[in-house]
UniProtKB/TrEMBL annotation, chains A, B:
<dbReference type="Pfam" id="PF16859">
    <property type="entry name" value="TetR_C_11"/>
</dbReference>
<keyword id="KW-0238">DNA-binding</keyword>
<dbReference type="Pfam" id="PF00440">
    <property type="entry name" value="TetR_N"/>
</dbReference>
<dbReference type="InterPro" id="IPR001647">
    <property type="entry name" value="HTH_TetR"/>
</dbReference>
<dbReference type="InterPro" id="IPR011075">
    <property type="entry name" value="TetR_C"/>
</dbReference>
<dbReference type="InterPro" id="IPR009057">
    <property type="entry name" value="Homeodomain-like_sf"/>
</dbReference>
<protein>
    <submittedName>
        <fullName>TetR/AcrR family transcriptional regulator</fullName>
    </submittedName>
</protein>
<feature type="domain" description="HTH tetR-type">
    <location>
        <begin position="25"/>
        <end position="85"/>
    </location>
</feature>
<keyword id="KW-0804">Transcription</keyword>
<feature type="region of interest" description="Disordered">
    <location>
        <begin position="1"/>
        <end position="23"/>
    </location>
</feature>
<feature type="DNA-binding region" description="H-T-H motif">
    <location>
        <begin position="48"/>
        <end position="67"/>
    </location>
</feature>
<dbReference type="InterPro" id="IPR036271">
    <property type="entry name" value="Tet_transcr_reg_TetR-rel_C_sf"/>
</dbReference>
<keyword id="KW-0805">Transcription regulation</keyword>
<dbReference type="InterPro" id="IPR050109">
    <property type="entry name" value="HTH-type_TetR-like_transc_reg"/>
</dbReference>
């Protein structure tokens, strides 16, 4: 889920991980790499289209014409992060799948430099970045629904389980503590939040039925 | 939990809700009311010490000397919000207490003008506001621990239950969906998140023991 590592739209990274595509794709990749590097070093406040252009070795008018402003650059970093073949972990059990997923989120949220934290912070500054961040999360949650359907197939969960609500319950405590409450990172957090959601799911908390789920 | 309604430090609002205290307390209240009003109307980007001073009817140097900058003003709004006698709901059951608490959070996060959302957004802009936001949340979570100790006394939960983890599991989905994912408000959210946490708690998810809780 590291936005710095993604290939451009509609392509798949070849085994050697050499940047694919033509000149346009290459320039996009150079620019997005530069955005991530600048963001990691200086945060949102130090991010400028000029510094990105200089770092990427492209002309500033190229950046300006294609991305417009800092918000457009950040939005494209986030959109590029969805252009991958990421799949959620498949460990054979609901709780372990959720724990492995949370481990990835935890690693991204506590990474240095704090790229993911800086992108989330930027989404409070730029509407374009906010919308792209939202698209990326929706894409990730949609891909993760297979964790829940596998658990249903294995008989771990009842057939009508609300996958999205379960996934949000499993992951929300990480975002809440690390992004909003800013509590010190605790390596037990990913496993604990996974276990809580799995126990609640087993107890029927995410069962969908005509009457269930209404307050 | 509305920061606009709080009395100044160390005082309690008299029954008539007239602003208590002397001139200093009165000025503080006028200024903090003005910050909240300006924030509601213009958001963080439109917030200036000059506009706050004008709205509060005090001299701009008064604001500058006492609060320094916009970050200092926001931090004081958040600190003032802790100076109240707020207590968490007491309904007789864990799940209903959590649902009532979530109802308050949901109302604050979906209120118009979006003061709480603007304060959270501001905490990504100003380190002073971020620290004050953190203090306010820690204060609220600490006050809410009584919900869990009452449930332990009633025999609803095992004696060694991690109150903070339970409270975070109960409330995190609201913040995650309304603040970060920006999903459309759903009035079932408060009750559902409360039920999930209560079911997980009954299943032993927040039990503290020498071995429990380690990943």
């Amino acid at each position: 889920m590291n936005p710095a590592d993604q290939g451009p739209e509609g392509t798949r990274p070849p085994p050697t991980r050499r940047r694919p595509g033509g000149r346009t794709a290459r320039i996009r990749q150079q620019v997005l790499d530069a955005v991530v590097a600048e963001l990691g070093e200086h945060g949102y406040d130090g991010l400028t289209t000029d510094a990105v252009a200089a770092r990427a070795g492209v002309h500033r008018t190229t950046v300006y014409r294609r991305w417009g402003d800092v918000g457009g650059l950040l939005a494209d970093v986030l959109d590029a992060a969805s252009d991958d073949d990421w799949q959620p972990p498949d460990t054979g059990s609901l709780e372990r799948d959720l724990a492995a997923l949370n481990q990835e989120i935890y690693a991204a949220l506590t990474a240095q430099p704090p790229i993911m934290a800086a992108l989330i912070a930027a989404s409070f500054r730029s509407e374009k970045a906010a919308q792209a961040q939202q698209r990326l999360w929706e894409d990730r949650y949609a891909r993760c629904e297979i964790i829940v359907s596998r658990a249903v197939q294995h008989g771990e969960l009842p057939p009508h389980t609300d996958a999205r609500q379960l996934l949000i319950a499993a992951t929300a405590p990480l975002y809440h503590q690390l992004v909003l409450l800013r509590t010190a990172p605790d390596p037990r957090l990913p496993g604990h939040a996974a276990r809580t959601a799995a126990l609640a799911a087993a107890a029927g908390s995410f069962a969908k039925s005509p009457s269930a789920g209404h307050a």
